[in-house]
Every structure is written in C-alpha cells, then in structure tokens.
Design goal:
Layout (H helix, E strand, L loop, with lengths): L1 H5 L2 H11 L4 E5 L9 H14 L27 H23 L9 E5 L6 H9 L4 E5 L2 H8 L8 H16 L18 E2 L38 E2 H10 L2 E6 L9 H5 L5 E7 L2 H11 L5 H8 L7 H23 L7
Parallel strand pairs: 1-7, 2-6, 2-7, 3-6
Antiparallel strand pairs: 4-5
Helix pairs in contact: 6-7
The protein binds 2-acetamido-2-deoxy-beta-D-glucopyranose (4 copies).
Family: Belongs to the sulfotransferase 1 family.
Organism: Mystacornis crossleyi
Keywords: Membrane, Transferase, Transmembrane, Transmembrane helix
Length: about 350
Amino acid sequence: MEIRRALPQDIRELLHRLKMRSKYAVLLVFVISLIIIEKENNFISRVSDKLKQSPQALAEANSTEVSPAPAENGSLASLQELDAAFFQLRSHLYNITLQLAGDGDPGPRRHLLLMATTRTGSSFVGEFFNQQGSIFYLFEPLWHVEKTVTFLPGGASAVGSALVYRDVLKQLLLCDLYILENFISPAPEGHLTPFLFRRGSSHSLCEEPVCTPSTKKVFEKYYCKNRRCGPLNITLAVEACRRKQHVALKTVRIRQLEFLQPLVEDPRLDLRIIQLVRDPRAVLASRMVAFSGKYETWKKWASEGEAPLREEEVQRLRGNCESIRVSAELGLRRPGWLRG
Ligand SMILES: *[C@@H]1O[C@H](CO)[C@@H](O)[C@H](O)[C@H]1NC(C)=O
Ligand SMILES: *[C@@H]1O[C@H](CO)[C@@H](O)[C@H](O)[C@H]1NC(C)=O
Ligand SMILES: *[C@@H]1O[C@H](CO)[C@@H](O)[C@H](O)[C@H]1NC(C)=O
Ligand SMILES: *[C@@H]1O[C@H](CO)[C@@H](O)[C@H](O)[C@H]1NC(C)=O
C-alpha cells in the first residue's frame, strides 16, 4: 500500500471512493490549471471582478477530505515543470489503474459517471479509464442526444433535456446501446452505423470483436485511431459492454447532480459519480482558445478593455459556476442516496 501513501490527497480519495462505499467524489483539476500564462492570469482576475464573486470557495468549507487546488502561479507554467507535473500525474493514474485491475478478485460490477464541463481535463481523466481492459468506456454519448433534442424550434427546456439525458444514461450504463439509435443521424440501418460520435475515443469499440473488417466504400466519420474497422455493429458493442466488468461514461452535459438520484437508486446499477471541477475562470480562458468562434465577445472584451459585454453572457458564465457549485455542495453534503 506504499503507492497509496505517495498519491496526492485527491487522487487517493478518488481511489478510495471507487473501491469503497461512497458514491460521489469531487476531483479538483489542478495540473491542467497550471497551464496559466501571465495573460490568462490577468484575464482571470478581470473575470472575477466582473462576476463580483469568488467561485474559488467552491464547497470547500464543509469538506474535510478533498484537498484544495494549489494556488495558481504563473511562474509554474514553464513547460518543463508542466511536463514533470503531467508525467507524475500520469504515473499516479497508471498505478491506480494497476491497483484497480490487479486485485485478483473481480468484485462487483461498477458503473462510473465522469461528470464535467468542457475544458476541465475530463478527456484526460476519461482516457485513464478507457485504457483499462476491464472497463467499457464511452466518450460523450449524450452528444447525439443534444443534437436531436435541441433541434426542435425554440429548443427543449433545460429540465426536459436533463430528463432525457438521464434516461439515456441509465440505458447506456445498463449496456443498452440501442437507445442511441434514436438519436444518431442518419439513423442506423440493421444496427449498423459509421456515425457514432468519437468512436475512436473508446477502446472497447475499436478492438476485437467489435472492430469488424473494414469495408472500403463506407465513409467513417468517427473512425478508430489505431486500425481500420467497418461501420459499428451496435449489437457487437452491446455484447462487448456486457462482457466487460465495469462501465464508465464521460459527459459534459449533465449540469445538476440531483437529476442523477434515480440512477444512483436504481437497484440494477452500482453507480459512482466523479465530478471534475476546475476554476471556471480558467475554463473560460481555455474555451476562448479552443472554441474561438463562440467566444468573440469575451475575446473583444479581453483585448480591447472596455468593449461592452452583454449581460446575458455574464449571466451564462454565472449560471455555469452556479450549477457546478450546487452539484458539488450537494455531493459533499452526502445525502442518504449518495452514501454507500
Ligand atoms: C456548511 O455547513 C453549514 C452547516 O451544516 C451550512 O450552513 C453551510 O451552508 C455549509 N457551507 C457550504 C459551503 O456548504
Ligand atoms: C509563485 O511565484 C513567485 C514568483 O515567481 C514565487 O516566489 C513563489 O514561490 C511562487 N509560489 C508558488 C506556490 O509556487
Ligand atoms: C508507480 O509505481 C511504480 C512501481 O511500483 C513506482 O516506481 C512509482 O514511483 C509509482 N509512481 C507514483 C507516482 O507513485
Ligand atoms: C452484427 O452482429 C451481430 C452479432 O454478432 C450479428 O448477428 C449481425 O449479423 C451483425 N450485423 C451485421 C449487419 O453484420
């Protein structure tokens, strides 16, 4: 158990929660928030002024077990240090993987939901579950649902879509991947589709026997990275899911933890939820780079100083912070349904 002692507190906590009884863990993403350049730091403090609140205090008050993220420091951003931090985290995750997999006793079937917002490092953490042979992992399957549900004129209400997300998640955790066929466009024929979003990010969908010999004439929008496969046979994927010991899903589309209560209470599931939290201001700065087009107003505001910022944009950011806070507070308060 030496490895455990060497782990940073929050990773150790994660391991503990996965193996032990609690159904909820918060993972504060700190390594990734080290990618803070001076400019971003300025930006962050300006956003803070704008929000006139301190989202950093996020639910730490009542938590004894979750360690706070270390202070952001521009000087840590030197690439070398970043590299070192990254490799160390990777080594930690790798060791945890070995431990989870190598216990000999297979233990009960577990279901894992990685709940995050974009640019929190969720792909990175998800990848660590993906790499494990005993886990069936899907990367953002709700993408298809959002495409379909918000397609309606006027858009579905937030509550309405959250309920759809939840019910789809439940089926997916139960390995009923056929549920996605209602949302994949164009609709699969004979349970066959080349359009499953980010298939290549799911190891289980790119290995035998789910990877069938490729057929030259079919255009694969989301293809496997390491090898060529034929269109996805959803029946084969369902069978693979049932064979794996655990199921893990990553999503950025669940905003409120409370919506997941029926899943946690479903006797067919043994659900563990990991919420990834990163300083929302750093998330915003990162999104401005990654999804440049969508954040024009913020970019103008950041570069031109006084360019007006629409109240609605500020409200949206505030809303994001608020739902993260509400969920994390609920999780850390550990209501009955989140206890093991
Ligand atoms: C901490 O707990 C107290 C009492 O249980 C409560 O009043 C307060 O709102 C909690 N604070 C946070 C940040 O959860
Ligand atoms: C932050 O940067 C300052 C100046 O470079 C340095 O003196 C300080 O030790 C750093 N703090 C941390 C926590 O690394
Ligand atoms: C992971 O395990 C290896 C071998 O036991 C050990 O050398 C290494 O220090 C561990 N890494 C971390 C970060 O604990
Ligand atoms: C998909 O896989 C199932 C299960 O092996 C098989 O019965 C079915 O024929 C396959 N579908 C196609 C179109 O190949």
